[in-house]
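Final report, results section. Input specification for complex C-07:
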Amino acid sequence: MKTSWQLYLDLVKGLWRENPVFRLLLGMCPTLAVTTTALQGFTMGMAVVFVLILSGVVISSFRKFIPHQVRIATFTIIIATFVTITDLTLAATFPPMSKALGPYVPLIVVNCIILGRMEAFTSKQPVSRSFMDALGMGLGFTLTLIILGSIRELLSSGAVFGYQILTTQAAGGWFRPWVIMILPPGAFITLGILLGIINTFSRKS
Amino acid sequence: MRTATRMIATLVVVSLFAGGTLAFIYRWAKPQIEAHEKELLRQAIFNVLPETKKYEFSEKDGVGIYQCEDASGNLVGYAFVAEGGGYQDKIKIMVGLKTDLETLGGIEILYSRETPGLGGKIATEDVLQPVAETFTEQFRELQVSPPIEYVKGKKPEAPNEIQAITGATISSRSVVKIINEMVAKITGILKEQEEK
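Structure output:
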């Protein structure tokens, strides 16, 4: 009972209390860069979930064999391997998305969330807890990217996940798309406002 | 000494495994990635010369040309890839040239990394504009002799003019320049070949 409660806690902390983007402010580069549409945010999130879980399981399984002095080098090789697998798989099976995400999939290698979790959590914990931690952190990251992507996609083209919600002027409706939301400033503004709202709420409680 | 050996052994084993796995995945992914690229090229050719039903690739003086034919085997034009510097990175364009060597069938941007929202509009449709008025659509049936010119802030008048994207003159100019240079080169090669 106690262990399953522990596993549950490991999972949910990534979703809110230690959400990698909103609370730890890690992995900002892909967060800002790829969230021009909700689908891109989702795909990026899934790629990170995949890399986090597999590296987590592998590193946690072999944590007792990895000498302390070369642990970061070893982690990096393992993470880079899974990232390359993700990149190649995406390019082979889903080329338009691979093109849209551009260099940000290979850049998962240097994503602070992954190396940070490996160093801070996985390298000291058993496989089951590492798995839940990776899943929680990954899902928390994905959720954040979907929120950001949905807001930006809605304001820049009137759609969410490609599903048209507001009719744009070009299509004869009233909505005039905000071009700034597809540009980098749109990412900073959206993230800033969301962080502000979240900090206000968490201070009150 | 023992730690040193362990460190080396760990890194060697991990790297060997990583290398092996990647080699395996790469062998699976490579043919699929190549197939996708070929398909994109095929669609680009059909887009820039819409009457095309089949095409043949040949290389002349180090330049690759796709000779395009319609359903009954008549030559409809030549498609080729033009490449050159843009605002941030190179731009690759598939250009369709009709048989008179003076009219474009159309163009399609194959690769570009221009600023999203500004120069990026050369490749993607603008959310504020209907598809028929996008940048690349201006090149349909455009005259290339005399060479293409661009105008700023007004509608094009001459048959060889296009309107540059507001805020992205460099990207627009680059596209025009890349096409003009390549068209001149291709026309030269094709005319020379005719004379022979």
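Chain B has a mean pLDDT of 86. Chain B touches chain A at residues 3, 6-7, 10-11, 14-15, 17-18, 21-22, 25-26, 28-29, 32-33, 36, 40, 116-117, 127-130 (CB under 8 Å). This concludes the modelling results for the funded period.
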